[in-house]
Amino acid sequence: MASEEPFDPTASDIPKPLAISFIHHGETRVLSFPQDATLSDLSAEVSSTLEVPPSNQKFLVGGGIGLLKPPFKNPNMRVAELIGRKITLMGSTAKQVETLNKSISQATAPRRPGPIKAALPARHRDWRKSTEEAQYTFHTLRPLPYLPNPERSLRFLERLRDDAGIKAAMRAHKFSVPLLTEMDPAEHTTHESRTLGLNRNAGEVIELRLRTDAYDGYRDYKTIRKTLCHELAHNVWGPHDRNFWNLCHQIEKEVERDDWTRGGRSVGFEEYYTPSAEDDVHDHGGWTGGEFVLGGSSGGETVVSSAGGNVPAGNLSRRDILARAAEERMKRQKQAEQESKSNGGEPAS
After folding, report:
1. Mind telling me which InterPro entries this protein's record contains (predicted)?
2. Among 12, 73, 257, 337, which has the highest number of CB atoms less than 10 A from its own CB?
3. What are the residue ranges of helices labelled H in the chain?
């Protein structure tokens, strides 16, 4: 009588676990799942292992799948279908969100007036200007502590606060912002858009996208400063109507004019570019709800650049994108002037 073979738990007929790899806050993470695991299982494991609650989870999946977030449209979709695809998890832990909300609450809380110090006389100092600069400014600067090198972000925020042009515009319009903070790129990035700035409650908090998408550097200073001008205009006007755009361009001009580090002069006409009624389409789907985003179009990814153009992004660098945007504006301006002259009128201002 033949003896029975002992049970071998490593036998080949036992299904191997699935290894799902994804990027979260710039780091590669790997989680193991059984062969029949679903998206619901993935969400639950992320919540348990990384402490990112389902309400904060967004999975950006390559290969045509796109954005997935709880509650999923197809919660029973097998995670095996995600194997081999690039996955980015966008989401902060509950503790990180709590820390940021606490910072916002502290920055916006009423301040108790301190003792009034006697002013000391000084020569060659504009005390009225100094007083206004202390009143009309960004009272608290807050980098995100859980991102790499928060001290670099703090220096960037300090540079914006102390920018001569920004300080002059803040005084001129009497803008007092309790909190200026940086934005987590992963929290505001999808296939369709990249948010560059947010204004909460008409200037209570302004968030700016300082970092590149991969956290490996910082965005162009002038682009961020123009985004800040845009968000400051939302302190007064919410919708993107003509009143908003008039104020936005006015602030941009004032910042350039009063930036003594540049001699008070701009380089290139694009600094003072004011769109005509026909050009308003360039902000379609871009500047909405106080957000400046790089938007997408049905024909492929399109960049709505802060230089004022609307060009296909493809694999172009930021410099090439801005250059093409400027070329498009020049073509439109020449075309408008030619049409005006052919009709016997003057070029539009």
Report:
1. WLM_dom (IPR013536)
2. 257
3. 39-49, 94-108, 127-135, 150-161, 164-173, 221-233, 242-257, 318-342
d(CA 319, CA 270): 14
Above 90 in pLDDT, residue 258?
A: no
pLDDT value for 299: 33
Q: What is the C-alpha to C-alpha distance for residues 161 and 181, in angstroms, rounded to an integer?
A: 11
Active site residues: 231
End-to-end alpha carbon distance in the chain: 103
Q: Whole-structure pTM over 0.70, yes or no?
A: no
- Token pair for 347: 């070029």
Q: Which CATH architecture has domain 18-90?
A: Roll (3.10)
Chain region(s) in the chain for CATH 3.10.20.90: 18-90
Task: Give the Cα separation of 109 and 90 in Å (integer).
Answer: 30
pLDDT in tens, 134-172: 889 999 999 999 888 899 999 999 999 999 999 999 999
